[in-house]
Amino acid sequence: MKLRILGCGTSSGVPRIGGDWGACDPTEPRNRRTRVSVLVETATTRILVDTGPDLREQLLRAEVADVDAVIWTHDHADHCHGIDDLRQIYHARRSPVVGYARAATLEALRTRFDYAFTGNGGYPPTVDGAVLPDCLTVGDIRIRVVDQPHGSITSAGLRFDQGGKSLVYATDFNILSDEMQSLYEDVDVLVIDALRRAPHPTHPTLDQAVAWAQALRAGRTLLTHMDQSMDYGALAATLPDGIAPGYDGQEVVV
């Protein structure tokens, strides 16, 4: 499997509008962060996780025109408001792309973006919506799903397995539940939310993310969903072995 981090920023991205780089060095390219999204792929299968507002530019940079499936973790704007860019994927494949989400998330997406699922005014539907089950297989990738506490809602935590290798994508949560721990233990690569150092009601702090990664015994950990207080160089110099900040465009062979 190969992982590509399309975006690893928080809902405002880095820099924020107005040129707010916070503590991030603007001369370090890895500090420029678009909204969170990843691609997981093998030689035969490609899965997109989330469709944030920066999706067009992310897929252009990745030179990707088609995917086999989309999975939405939840319906917050920074994870789904680029859904219109799936129209170009529809044109590339000449059929709607299957889009998986937990039932409540799918209902919210259908309400907000009904035209994407049903078509409108002569335009065809671009997404074939499907409820995301606890376990499914897309191409040659097995996917297992757990509901993560994310404030008053839940997000979908995802484990991908293929060829004896494992990858977990865990963003937008604030509690590591027993169910999450059981699914995430001993993975080869863990991509985990690490919003900032200061506490937040719906996201992990840096210290929490590091402690959880170590408790899960991940072979390698990449941090994502980072805000403008999280400078790449400062983080890279101080994190424990096996844990590093992710960056937009990063590719990892699992």
Mean pLDDT: 98
SSE topology string: EEEHEHHEHHEEEEEHEHEHEE
Count of DSSP strands? 14
Helix content: 10-25%
Rg from C-alpha positions? 17 Å
Structural class: alpha/beta
Protein name: MBL fold metallo-hydrolase
InterPro entries: Metallo-B-lactamas (IPR001279), RibonucZ/Hydroxyglut_hydro (IPR036866)
Domain Metallo-beta-lactamase: 34-203
Organism: Sphingomonas donggukensis
3D architecture notes:
The structure is a single chain. With 254 residues, the protein is an alpha/beta fold. It is 24% helix and 29% strand. The protein has helices at residues 55-62, 77-80, 86-93, 103-112, 114-118, 178-184, 206-216, 232-238; strands at 2-7, 37-41, 46-49, 69-71, 97-101, 127-131, 135-138, 141-150, 153-162, 165-170, 189-193, 220-224, 243-245, 251-253. Strands 6-5-4-3-2-1-14 form a seven-stranded mixed beta sheet. Strands 7-8-9-10-11-12-13 form a seven-stranded mixed beta sheet. InterPro entries: Metallo-B-lactamas (IPR001279), RibonucZ/Hydroxyglut_hydro (IPR036866).
Topology overview:
Layout: E1 2-7, E2 37-41, E3 46-49, H1 55-62, E4 69-71, H2 77-80, H3 86-93, E5 97-101, H4 103-112, H5 114-118, E6 127-131, E7 135-138, E8 141-150, E9 153-162, E10 165-170, H6 178-184, E11 189-193, H7 206-216, E12 220-224, H8 232-238, E13 243-245, E14 251-253
